[in-house]
Amino acid sequence: MGRTSDARDRILDSSRRLMRTRGYTALGVAEICAEAGVKKGSFYHFFDSKQALTVETVDGQWTEERRSLEASLEDADGPVDRLRALIECLIGVQRADYGESGTIHGCLYGNLAAEVSEREPEVRRRLVLVFDEQVDMIADLVARARSAGLIGGTGTEHALARALVAQIEGTVLLARVRNDPTLLDDVWPNAERLLGLG
Amino acid sequence: MGRTSDARDRILDSSRRLMRTRGYTALGVAEICAEAGVKKGSFYHFFDSKQALTVETVDGQWTEERRSLEASLEDADGPVDRLRALIECLIGVQRADYGESGTIHGCLYGNLAAEVSEREPEVRRRLVLVFDEQVDMIADLVARARSAGLIGGTGTEHALARALVAQIEGTVLLARVRNDPTLLDDVWPNAERLLGLG
């Protein structure tokens, strides 16, 4: 058992690891506490409920992921390369899963959206926010690529960005149900088609 | 209480209705029986477990949906119109949901894939089969459209068909989490982009 301040972080870390694999309903507070090495009493000192933990789990995952996405942009040159870097970073989580455990666990946000959209309004609001921010990041790059004359096609930047996020979520779902990481290789070629690139 | 032969069908009907909304884990056998007006003892006369019921629920839903998809093809003329009819039929379930209840419940197969892929191997095998059959139906039309010189683009018929299924699943997920049916209007324009049409 570490210091109290560590306990909260350990609970959040365990929740992120377990929730993506096991989902929301099947995952109990006791299991999260056991994995985190924290007593159940401590859990309720930090979080009001599993729902409250889930909101913070989504927030924490997205804060970290957004940081990785922003970092991925710095290494790329020009809006099209940046779009590709962003998309590769978004699906990189799945490749890393497969590399480490031999199993694609899917997208935390997509998994939760499919499972609890109608049951947990506060979780749902956070998921909408995460998808909106992903769409905004992509739409910004699509607008830059279009201004630079690098992509053609029709559709507003936001509609195209939503199409890319949908393509990623759908492909990750299909890759997960088959546990086949090679399906992820199609995301960028399909993004090029959606954007009228290449 | 109807005849015994009805009880099985009523359990399956209730399961299809409830599982798409409530998911797998949160839905209990007792709730399904209550909705179906069937005693719990009867349930276990017909089904070994909730897992066994879920396998039959997926099979039953897909058998009926495939019939609707095939019927939608008969009213359409030529492979591109048929592709559009097929896609509109696949997302029509969501529009019907919204029209009837004001809520988009998502795709039964996608919801289950996101929730139980790693926990219920038999359910997963059925989901893979359903997605494979959807891909095959679309790939057949893509091949016909290509032979007729109606679509250009690169990519094998099956890869393009998978891209369309992924676009549908991803868009339905985003439409569900926002409960916004207007997002579904983008599926066909995005299908055109993926296929190099229009």
TrEMBL record, chains A, B:
Which residues does UniProt assign to DNA binding? Answer: 28-47
HTH tetR-type domain segment(s)? 5-65
Q: Which domain of life is it from?
A: Bacteria
According to the UniProt entry, the coiled-coil residues are: none
Question: Which keywords does the record carry?
Answer: DNA-binding, Transcription, Transcription regulation
Protein name as it appears in the record? TetR/AcrR family transcriptional regulator
Q: Which organism is it from?
A: Nocardiopsis lambiniae
